[in-house]
Every structure is written in C-alpha cells, then in structure tokens.
Amino acid sequence: MTANPLLRVQFRVPFDQIRPEHVEPAIAELLADARTDIQAIVDAPGPRTFDNTLGALEAATERLEFAMTVVGHLESVATTPELRAAHNAVQGPVAEFFAQIPLDAGLWRALQEFSRTPEAAALTGARKRLLERTLDDFRRQGAELDPAGKARLAELSAELAQITTQFSEHVLDATNAYELWITDPADLAGLPQSAIDAARASAEAKGRPSAWRFTLQQPSFIPFVTYADSPELREQIWRAANICAEDGPYDNRELLRKILLLRREQAELLGFRDFADFVLKPRMARDGASARAFVDGLAARTEAAFAAEARDLHAFRRRLEGPDAPEPAPWDLAYYAEKQRRALYDFDDEALRPYFPVESVLKGLFDLVGDLYGVRVEPVDGFETWHPDVRTYAVRDGDALLGVFYADLFPREQKRSGAWMNALVTGRPDGRGGFGPHLGLICGNLTPPIGDRPALLTHDEVETIFHEFGHLLHHLLTRVELRSLAGTNVAWDFVELPSQIMENWCWERAALDRFARHVDTGAPIPDDLVKRMLSARNFRAASAMMRQLSFATVDLELHRGALPATPAEILARAREIMARFTPAPLPDDYAMVCRFGHLFSSPVAYAAGYYSYKWAEVLDADAFTRFQREGLFSRDVGLAFRRAILERGDSDDPAALFRAFMGRDPDPEALLRRAGLAAAA
C-alpha cells in the first residue's frame, strides 16, 4: 500500500498525491503519535531540561500541524465535496487535542518544574521568551482550571473549530451561488472593456458565449459597482454581496450567534471579562479597552473630514444631475466617487491597468526585495502544485537557499475569496550558522488573463501582491531557532507591519518605473498620469479610514459588552454600529457580518483584532519614513529592517523590535499625515 503522504513533514509537498481518503487516517495516526510524545514529556526520567520539556513540546505537534495546514490549504484552494467532508471530520478532534495541551496537569507540572531549574534561570533570547510565553499561554488557556472547567473548555474549542469552518464554507458556497447574467449590451454601459471581456470569458466558461457573467468575486464585483451606469443593476449586485450567507441553504445567522456565545463562554471560563480581553492579553494592545480607545481616537480625528467628503459627493452628484438629485445610496457611492475623482484629478484606475501586466509586476517586486534585503527570487522547478496556474519560486541569499514559495494568484470556483499567505515548513538551524530552507505560499484572486492577453492588474491588486509578499518575507527570512516563535508567529497587531510597509513602494515613482511598463509598448507610465494618480491617492481618505474603523468597531462591540439575544438582533446591532461610519443609509436587510470571514472563519483569526490593520498601519507609515529619509532602495536601511523585524519573528517584544529599527517608539501621527488627515485634528 502506498504510504500516506500526510504522515511526515516534506519540503517538497506531494500535492499531486494527496487525496481526501488520506485525511482521516493520517490525522488519527498523527493525533495518537502527538499524544504519545506529550506523555513522554510528562514521564521523562531525570532532571528537567529545555530539550526534554520545551524543546520536546515544540516537536510533539509539528507533524500534526503540518498535515492540518496542508489539508486546510487544499480545502481553501481546490475544494471538493469529499475533501470538505474529510476536513470537517478532523477539525473537531484536532481542536480538542490542542485545547487539551495546556489542560494536561502532568505537562503543566513538567513545565513548572523546568521553570525552577538553574538552566531555566539562565535562559536568554528566544529560549527565555519561549518559556515565558508558554507559561503565560498555559495559564491563559486554562492550566489552572478545575477538572470540570478543563473538560468544558475542550468542548468549546472543538465546537468552535467545527462551527467556524462551516461559516467559512457557507461564505464560499453563497459567493459561488450568485451570478448576474447580462444579455443586453446596453446594460454594460459605463463598464471598462477589461471588465466586459472578463465577464464574457466567464460566461463562455459556463457555456453561454453570447452573454456576460458577473459574480461576487472581487475582480468582477468591484468594477461593476464602480463603473456600471445602471443603478438598478448596481443595487442588485451590491445587495447580493451584503446579504451573502444571510439566508437560504448557506445561512450563517445562527452560526454567528453561536460563535459569539461560545467565545464569550470561553473567555469567562478562563477568568476574562470578555473575549476581547482574552485574545488581546498577549498582543500589543493588551486589552479590549485599549484597542477600542485606539479605534475611537482615529475615528474622532477623521470624522470632520469624513462628513466633508460626504457633503462634497452629494454636491457633485447635484452638479451632474440637478439640484434635486438625491444623496447617493450605498450602491452609488463607488460609482459617483469614481466620477468625482475623474473630475477632480482627471484620473481613472483603468488607465493604469495596461501598465501592470502581472509578469512585470512580479519582476519589479522581486527586484525591489533584492535591492533592499540582498535576496534573489527566481523560478524553481520540481515542486508539485495543486493547480496548473500555481507557480513556484526560490529565494536565495548568495548561494544559500532561504526558502521556496508557491504563488496562486487567480480566482477559481473551488477557491475561497481574498488574498492570504501561509507558512508550510519552518527550517531549523543547520549547525553551521545557517538555517534549513523555509516553505510558504501566497494566494490571491486577482484579475485573470483573458485569452492570449496577460493578466493586467489594477493598482489595488498590485498593492495586494506586494502586501502578501511582505508576509511571505517575514516567514522566509526568519532566523529564529524555535518554530513557534519564528516568522509570522507574532502578535496579531504586529504581523501586518512587514506586509503593509511593502505597499508604500507602489506609490513611489522611482519604484513604479522599475516595473510599471505598458503591456504593448513597454513604455513607463506617463508623467502626467503618475502625477494624477499621486494627487488622487488621498481622495476620500477619510471615507476609506472610516470604512476600516467600522469593521474594527463592530468587531470589538460584538466581542465586548452585552450580546444581543437573537440572530436578528445581532444583525441589527451590527448594522446600527456600521451605519455610523457610512455616508449612505444602510438598508434594513444589510448583513455584511454574515460573510465577515476575518472574524468568524476560524476560532480566533481577526476576532477582536480587526483593529490590528490600523494599528500596524501606524507602525508601517512611521517605519517607511526612514526609507524616505535615507533612501527608497537603500540596502543599509533594508538590511536594518531585515535584521530588526523580518528575521526576528517573536523572539523579542514587538515594541522592542520596532525601537531597534527606528530608534524610538512609533509616532501615532504618521498614519494621519500619510493619509492627509493630520490637519483635521
């Protein structure tokens, strides 16, 4: 019988060999092995040492975590009914196992015994931090609960894993279930040719070559609500997006309520006031009140400019359509804002698309990180993938192979929406001053190629690639010897610094000139177009800020304070909160939270932590000022960032890592200055 490909950590992951029927037997065996390894820590003879306690605990779950990462990844990019069923079947047992680790009285005793040894007292650096973090995490996760409390906590963890997975599946299925079919060319009025061509290709793939097909996938949805002249059709697709997974066979309303209740019970059982305080204790914000104060402070600094932008947009519509023109509805905002931007700056995003063929963008990105961090990115063969579109690349520093990554950039119906990065393998020290190679991946849902034409990206999509590659570098450049502290395993409100700082180069002319080349002529972006793009950068910056703050506020509100009793009341409360941050009244059936995967598609993820995007934006806006002062492509500054941030993982407090790069604490005004909002104080 062929060996199960999920049973061992493999740098060359055999994606072509993994089948749904491998999942349950592999996970069952890996769970048994992990339990045996943990019991061996408890039963270890002789004195407690780092290697037989913390080191052994690091190793005990590695194969299981690898297998679950691979299976979860495949379910998100190449799902089938069989794979989904297998993934769902193992979610609960695995979550229960991990929840039981800090509840194991013998293991807790072993950790405490080691913490009292002379070796533990002499620990420094990452090993000292791992001991401190492990002891804190065990206490926070219930190590000191009574037996009844421990049993209930394990039940909660298993149930949350299952329900959040179901929530995510509903979002994917509901997204795929919606199609807007257009057969009358008149209904395409206003749309750019790129959107029309993509819709025709989508229809042809569905066997209707004479029609146009639009979906809720971002490359289809965003152009439609931004450019389509038909308000009726804009409303139709906008409403579909904002009641997605709110009813029918993919109804997430009751799941949403259950997730919030289970999280609340989990936090209270562990002695925390609410889920936000539980989640944020090890993060930079420390508690829900601090996170909320941060969000409220940004909102207060933005409100005046936000109100002015809303007035200006309505006044613009009246100039277009007459003094009786109504205020824009939610499905009108992007449409009239785009027209207003064109009028003010003579700038259209679509004018940039021909300058961003995906191959040129990737080359420019790889050249940039080469200049900054001294690494070389090049295609590599010999790695099996899960789809023909997936590319593989190696990252090298001189002759040393730092890592390999997969890039899966375009949408498919079997693939969830959004963009993300995953770590697959974390290399270990090789004993010669280097590390074994790391393995990771980036995924996106960017505008795909059509026919023989290459994929032509929007500027926003270019930012997305740069963003996810920043996360990837955080993993591939890590030099932390301990897997659980390496790479992106950092505080959630710090993890976006390496990703978001990369977006800054997408706005610098000197960087754009390296990769923004016309697909047909090879010419750079004309000066006047770049000037108009930069002039328009902060157009409606307050509205963009308030949109993100609305997500952060509803997140914190739902995870703090009293929870409404019914799904309908939860949706009403979320709608009421978000209405304070939107320039147009939200319809009564607005249910965006039913598809808010950031918060509800896994047991934690961004739950009570969506504020992290803005928190990290403060860090990235400030950190980028050093590149602006000392050189956009400065190898010295790049290497300083690499050494202080990218290589260090969670080996030290993130505030200390930031100070190591900037020489001081973050400047909270940096983000407002970059957004052009500092004067609104």
From TrEMBL:
Keywords, in A-Z order:
Hydrolase, Metal-binding, Metalloprotease, Protease, Zinc
Under the heading InterPro entries, the entry gives: M3A_DCP (IPR034005), MetalloPept_cat_dom_sf (IPR024079), Neurolysin/TOP_dom2 (IPR024077), Neurolysin/TOP_N (IPR024080), OpdA_N (IPR045666), Pept_M3A_M3B (IPR045090), Pept_M3A_M3B_dom (IPR001567)
GO MF terms on file? Answer: metal ion binding; metalloendopeptidase activity
Cite the Peptidase M3A/M3B catalytic domain residue spans from the record.
225-676
A Gene Ontology cellular component where this protein is annotated is:
cytosol
EC nos: 3.4.24.70
TM spans (from-to): none
Which reaction(s) are listed as its catalytic activity?
Hydrolysis of oligopeptides, with broad specificity. Gly or Ala commonly occur as P1 or P1' residues, but more distant residues are also important, as is shown by the fact that Z-Gly-Pro-Gly-|-Gly-Pro-Ala is cleaved, but not Z-(Gly)(5)
According to the record, cofactor stoichiometry and binding are noted as:
Binds 1 zinc ion.
Give the Oligopeptidase A N-terminal domain ranges.
28-146
Q: What class of enzyme is it?
A: hydrolase
The keyword Zinc appears for this protein:
yes
Q: A Pfam family this protein belongs to?
A: TOP_N
Domain of life (superkingdom): Bacteria
Q: Which cofactor does it need?
A: Zn(2+)
Q: Which GO terms describe its biological process?
A: proteolysis
Q: Which family does it belong to?
A: Belongs to the peptidase M3 family.
Q: What is this protein called?
A: oligopeptidase A
State the species of origin: Nannocystis exedens
